[in-house]
Design a protein that fits this description.
Protein name: Rhomboid family protein
Shape: elongated
Distance between the termini: 20 Å
Pfam families: Rhomboid
Keywords: Hydrolase, Membrane, Transmembrane, Transmembrane helix
GO molecular function: serine-type endopeptidase activity
Radius of gyration: 22 Å
CATH architecture of the largest domain: Up-down Bundle
Helix content: 55-70%
Main location: membrane
Oligomer: single chain
Number of domains: 2
CATH class of the largest domain: Mainly Alpha
Number of strands: 2
Strand content: under 5%
Length: 263
C-alpha cells in the first residue's frame, strides 16, 4: 500500500498529520482559531473556509479521513493527474465548508425566529419543542425545568429562565465549530465511484466484496437520511459530506466529458 503512494496523496497525509500533532501537543489554541464557525459568530474568520479541513477533532477522526485518502487517492491521482486530484480535494473541502455555512445560516435563522416568537408570546409547549430540537446540548436536568415550567406557565421567574435558556441555545448553536477533511474525502469517494464504478472493494465490516458505485451510493443515501432527520445528538456535519459528494460529482462529470470511462 505505502509503496504505491503518490506525491499529492503523500503530501496531504503529511500536512494533515503534521497539523494534527502540532494542534494536539504544541499549540492547541490553533484548533479554535482554524475551525470553521457560523458566519455570524464572533469567532468566524474567512480563512476558516480553507483551514478547517486541516483540523481534526481527535485521532480517530484524522485516521478515518486519511485512511480513505490513502485507499482511494493514489489510483485517482494516477488516472487524473496530480493537479486534478489536488483541485478535487481542495474544491470539495472548501466548497463543502461554504455549503455547510449556508445550511447553518438557514438553521440559525429558523432557530432565531422560534426564539423570538417565544419571547413575544411565552408558551411552555414552544419552549419544550425548541429544547427537544436542541437536546444534545443539555443534560437531563433541563427536562425537570421543562416539567416545572409546564405546570406553572404564568410564573414570570420561570418565563425569564426559559428565555435565558433559549438565548443560551442560540449562543451555543452559533459557536459550534466544524473541523475535518470529510467533505474533501467524500469528493474523492464520488470521483472514484464515477471513474471506477465496477471496481471491487473488500469491506472489513461486514467482510464482503462490494462494487465502488454501490458503496458510494450507500454513503450518499445514508448522508441524505441523516441530513433529513437532523438528529440533535449527532455531532457529525452530514451536510458537509453531502456538499463534498455534490461538488466532486460535478467536477468529475465535466472532466469525463472528453474522455472514456475507465473501469
Amino acid at each position: 500500500m505505502f509503496r504505491n503512494i503518490t506525491p499529492i496523496v503523500k503530501n496531504l497525509l503529511l500536512i494533515n498529520v503534521g497539523i494534527f500533532l502540532v494542534s494536539a501537543f504544541l499549540f492547541p489554541q490553533i484548533s479554535g482559531l482554524f475551525a470553521l464557525y457560523y458566519i455570524h459568530s464572533s469567532y468566524f474568520q474567512p480563512f476558516q473556509f480553507l483551514t478547517y479541513m486541516f483540523m481534526h477533532a481527535d485521532f480517530w477522526h484524522l485516521f478515518s479521513n486519511m485512511f480513505g485518502l490513502l485507499i482511494f487517492g493514489p489510483l485517482l491521482e494516477q488516472f487524473l493527474g496530480p493537479k486534478k486530484l489536488l483541485i478535487l480535494w481542495m474544491a470539495c473541502g472548501v466548497g463543502s465548508g461554504v455549503l455547510y455555512s449556508g445550511y447553518t445560516s438557514f438553521r440559525m435563522a429558523n432557530l432565531q425566529e422560534k426564539v423570538a416568537a417565544f419571547q413575544v408570546d411565552p408558551d411552555p409547549d414552544t419552549f419544550n419543542k425548541i429544547v427537544l430540537e436542541n437536546r444534545g446540548f443539555f443534560d437531563r436536568a433541563i427536562f425537570d425545568f421543562v416539567d416545572d415550567y409546564s405546570r406553572n406557565p404564568t410564573d414570570q421567574v420561570k418565563i425569564s429562565r426559559a428565555s435565558q435558556t433559549l438565548d443560551a441555545i442560540l449562543e451555543i448553536q452559533g459557536n459550534v465549530p466544524m473541523v475535518g477533511a470529510s467533505g474533501a474525502l467524500f469528493g474523492v469517494l464520488i470521483a472514484f465511484a464515477m471513474l471506477f464504478p465496477n471496481t471491487q472493494l473488500f469491506l472489513l465490516f461486514p467482510p464482503m466484496p462490494v462494487k465502488a458505485k454501490y458503496l458510494v451510493l450507500f454513503y450518499g443515501l445514508y448522508t441524505i437520511y441523516n441530513v433529513l432527520i437532523n438528529n440533535p445528538t449527532d455531532n457529525v456535519a452530514h451536510f458537509a459530506h453531502l456538499g463534498g459528494l455534490i461538488i466532486g460529482g460535478v467536477l468529475v462529470y465535466f472532466w469525463k466529458k472528453d474522455r472514456n470511462s475507465f473501469y
